[in-house]
């Protein structure tokens, strides 16, 4: 099954509630929440207070992508604001195993994120402790960037490892996803796809979302 997680980073912040409701009605599976601190990435987005404000508006899972340093300090805030998944960057997590345990201690599903250049080997020791791996297919920090296709072999590599080990881990792709770039990623074994500008920049969000989802489903059928 292909899941689509619209990124509200690309939404109109002046009417964020409506923007969330619109993609839910359009068939979104998760809501992707990009948290940026201006340190780990060269941009600042929003924090747990904003997420808390939109939490009552939808029952869809909140997929919180932390692009921040010192994630441990903020995990409780995001858990209390209603996160279903919290993903942390391997590159920003010197005590990754501890961070994963901390996320789980709040009843939230933990995941790890790999930047485009970070090898899959970096997460092999903690694979059995997580529910989700997120592959960045752009350099994190901004929406609307071009998909980096050299990440696709890493997705294939991890899918095989997960299959061989008999694990149940979602593989998510984030950055530059549209109805074309979803195809190689779905074929490589990914099942959750973030899409920001490819949905929110279109006048008909429902049509855009469904087109991306259909392309992913056809790729694996
Ligand atoms: O994590 C992110 C950027 O760091 C965003 O989730 C990602 O860029 C989605 O936006 P788009 O689909 O427009 O590329
Ligand atoms: Fe993201």
UniProtKB/TrEMBL annotation:
GO terms for biological process: pentose catabolic process; pentose-phosphate shunt. SUPFAM superfamilies: Ribulose-phoshate binding barrel. Its cofactor is a divalent metal cation; Zn(2+); Mn(2+); Co(2+). InterPro entries: Aldolase_TIM, Ribul_P_3_epim, Ribul_P_3_epim-like, RibuloseP-bd_barrel. Keywords: Carbohydrate metabolism, Cobalt, Isomerase, Manganese, Metal-binding, Zinc. GO terms for cellular component: cytoplasm. The active site is at residues 34, 174. Pathway: Carbohydrate degradation. Its EC number is 5.1.3.1. It catalyses: D-ribulose 5-phosphate = D-xylulose 5-phosphate. The keyword Manganese applies. The keyword Metal-binding applies. Binds 1 divalent metal cation per subunit. It is an enzyme of class 5 (isomerase). A divalent metal cation binds at residues 32, 34, 65, 174. GO terms for molecular function: D-ribulose-phosphate 3-epimerase activity; metal ion binding. Substrate binds at residues 7, 65, 141-144, 174-176, 196-197. Belongs to the ribulose-phosphate 3-epimerase family. Catalyzes the reversible epimerization of D-ribulose 5-phosphate to D-xylulose 5-phosphate. This is Ribulose-phosphate 3-epimerase. It comes from Planococcus massiliensis. The lineage of its organism: Bacteria, Bacillati, Bacillota, Bacilli, Bacillales.
């Amino acid at each position: 099954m292909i899941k689509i997680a619209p990124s509200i980073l690309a939404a109109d912040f002046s009417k964020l509630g409506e923007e969330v409701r619109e993609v839910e009605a359009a068939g979104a599976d998760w809501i992707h929440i990009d948290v940026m601190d201006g340190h780990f990435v060269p941009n600042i987005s929003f924090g747990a207070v904003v997420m808390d404000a939109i939490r009552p508006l939808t029952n869809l899972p909140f997929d919180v992508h932390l692009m921040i340093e010192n994630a441990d300090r903020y995990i409780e805030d995001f858990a209390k604001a209603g996160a279903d998944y919290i993903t942390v960057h391997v590159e920003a997590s010197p005590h990754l195993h501890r961070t994963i345990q901390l996320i789980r201690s709040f009843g939230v599903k933990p995941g790890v994120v790999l930047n485009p250049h970070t090898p899959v080997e970096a997460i092999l020791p903690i694979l059995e402790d997580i529910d989700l791996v997120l592959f960045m297919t752009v350099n994190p920090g901004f929406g609307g960037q071009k998909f980096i296709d050299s990440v696709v072999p890493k997705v294939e590599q991890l899918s095989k490892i997960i299959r061989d080990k008999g694990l149940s881990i979602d593989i998510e792709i984030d950055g530059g996803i549209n109805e074309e770039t979803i195809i190689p990623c779905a074929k490589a074994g990914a099942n959750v796809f973030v899409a920001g500008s490819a949905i929110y920049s279109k006048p008909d969000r429902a049509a855009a979302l469904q087109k991306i989802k259909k392309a992913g489903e056809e790729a694996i059928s």
